[in-house]
């Protein structure tokens, strides 16, 4: 059936006054985030926008260092988005995590692999999953904690990347407990020495603090 030849005039077409700004911000967000699947990411963007949730948008363009040996799709910038979206709840529904993960165009098989590292049957304790995700970025315990500090800090980019000692200790202890080669005694000894070192700084741990202490 042919489409009717209908003429529209300016008075018949109503464009909401806020639409141009919405589309401008959407375009900027897409450029910064560089999603692998624009349609899937767009769905997540407007879904979050309609509900007043944190948007799936990177703070700046991120160029991940991808290799054939380790190209997981997850990047520090994407993990930071997930943290903003999900960290308000201590325990996150698996379905909610899956939806946010999918809307960032991340491979679901990677999410399933990370979830298998702990028992999250009754919900995902967010900070534990965050720690596991940092380990996927970093490989070693030291580099995992470096990523955690850089994502969680309120310091300017390129600064000391400080986070509260209690947060650092929780993440470090949890990741160490997943490594059979690191004993509880070694973990507690390291954290005790670190706490003494940073006690003069309001219990804030920066990259230099734990890097130096770990190497000594």
UniProtKB/TrEMBL annotation:
It comes from the Eukaryota. Coiled coil: none annotated. Signal peptide: none annotated. One of its GO terms (biological process) is flagellated sperm motility. GO terms for cellular component: motile cilium; nucleoplasm; radial spoke. Its main location: other. Keywords: Cell projection, Cilium, Flagellum. It is found in: Cell projection, Cilium, Flagellum. InterPro entries: ROP_DD (IPR047844). Belongs to the ropporin family. This is Ropporin-1-like protein. It comes from Salvator merianae.
